[in-house]
Amino acid sequence: MEKVRVNAGRGYDCIIGSGILKNIGEYTAAVKKPCKAFVVSDDTVYPLYGAQVEASLKAAGFETVHYVFKAGENSKNISTLSDILEAMAEAHITRSDLAIALGGGVCGDTAGLAAALYLRGIDFVQIPTTFLAGVDSSVGGKTAVNLNAGKNLMGAFYQPILCICDCKTFDTLPKEVFADGVAESLKYGAIFDEKLFETVASGDFDSENVVKRCIELKADVVEKDERDLGLRQLLNFGHTVGHAIEKLSEFKITHGHAVAIGMVIASYEKPGIRKRIIEGNIKCGLPVSCEFSAHELANAALSDKKRSGDYINLVVPEKLGKCVLKKINVSELENYIEKGLHI
Predict the structure, then answer these.
(1) Where does the chain show beta strands of DSSP type E?
(2) CA 334, CA 293: separation in Å to the nearest integer?
(3) How many whole angstroms separate alpha carbon 44 and alpha carbon 154?
(4) Cα 147 to Cα 113: distance, rounded to the nearest angstrom
(5) How far apart are CA 129 and CA 136, in angstroms?
(6) How many CA atoms lie within 13 A of 83 on its CB side?
(7) What is the pLDDT of residues 14-29, one digit of tens each?
(8) What is the pLDDT of residue 160?
(9) Which pLDDT value is given to residue 343?
(10) Sign of CA dihedral 188, 193, 196, 198
(11) Other beta carbons within 10 Å of 163
(12) Which band of pLDDT confidence, cut at 50, 70 and 90, is reported for residue 263?
């Protein structure tokens, strides 16, 4: 078992291990006096792990209630958020109680936002069960749901009090879902750590070690820029075009796969780096291109939250292991994407 400290909000630990779901109650009781725990999950994850998590919580003195929604990105919306909030009220959750997000990024983002809004904020714990959520979305306090116009346009910065990542849960993931997390891990390597990139790109790596390293990198960024005003924007490498791809595909192309394509497009000015990203994607079963035109992608990207007036910040690599922000006029975006689409 490993711990990484995130010094944001009140500060919290990320506990990383294998086979540690059975200890959820013990870990949670160490940071929160036993109370009513409102467990939010989806109809894929809850049948796998819900009973074990609730049993552990009860053994530690917590009373549990659960809410289960339909799995998938299409549930990451205001309707699901509203249903969770209503269920919290019906369960008589109070300010001294606790929300727990048990699942992947959709669950963590939506349940986290519900925790931020309910009674103007109650404590919550992240229990990521996908590789992608483990390396990225469960840490850092970004909570959100999607609007029709685009990804994550309604949200709040709201840090958990604890994150518990049992890497054993990755064993139940379909290959393509695990690959979504691989894409985000490649992203962290491309931005900050060439050695991490090469390790993940080889396709032969230890998931616990990769989760720990990605969280260490993200924790350092979040501590310096919790509100995404500068440095933290580097974590969006591949995401501006990636979110557009997700939206245009009606989320048939998943987040990690879309980001993988986005990284290829965003690195076109550095052919050597682009070649290594393409090779890494292919080795790890990730795509390198999409069927959408530059015009379609640019229009979809204009609602991206990284836009500011007539400008948008793109993340581009200088070398493998170092990315920088590039501010361009939105009128230049289509041409930029057009050049990136040609492999």
Answers:
(1) 2-6, 12-17, 36-42, 63-69, 98-103, 123-128, 142-147, 150-157, 162-166, 307-308, 311-319, 322-329
(2) 9
(3) 25
(4) 14
(5) 12
(6) 16
(7) 999 999 999 999 999 9
(8) 98
(9) 72
(10) positive
(11) 26
(12) very high
pTM for the model: 0.95
Structure tokens at 321: 């292991």
Of 11, 6, 5, 15, which is closest to residue 167 (Cα–Cα)? Answer: 15
Q: What local confidence, expressed as pLDDT, does residue 196 receive?
A: 98
Q: How far is Cα 179 from Cα 253, in angstroms, rounded to an integer?
A: 12
270 closest CA partner among 176, 340, 341, 179: 340
Element of type H or E holding 295: helix 294-301
**pLDDT (tens digit, 9 = 90+) per residue, 207-217?**
999 999 999 99
Token pair for 43 = 């109809």
Strand, coil or helix: 72:
coil
CA distance 319 to 311: 24
Distance CA 36, CA 3 (A): 26
Structure tokens at 92: 């008589």
* Cβ–Cβ < 8 Å for 223, 7: yes
- Residue 304, pLDDT > 80, answer no
d(CA 290, CA 253): 9
Give the span between the Cα atoms of 140 and 159, in whole angstroms: 6
Rounded (10°) angle between helices 294-301 and 239-248: 100
User: Residue 225 has which token pair?
Assistant: 């820029």
Rounding to the nearest 10 degrees, give the CA dihedral for residues 246, 248, 252, 253: -40
Tell me if 281 sits within 8 A of 264, measured CB to CB.
Answer: yes
**Spatial CA neighbour of 241 closest among 219, 267, 223:** 267
- Output the CA–CA distances (angstroms, integers) from residue 85 to 99, 135, 162, 257, in the order listed: 11, 27, 21, 31
Give the pair of three-digit tokens for residue 333. 């975006």
Is residue 40 within 8 A of residue 99, CB to CB? The reply is yes
Region 84-97: mean pLDDT is: 98
Distance (Å, whole) CA 158 – CA 69: 22
Q: Give yes or no for a contact between 135 and 215, defined as CB atoms under 8 angstroms apart.
A: yes
Distance CA 228, CA 204 (A): 32
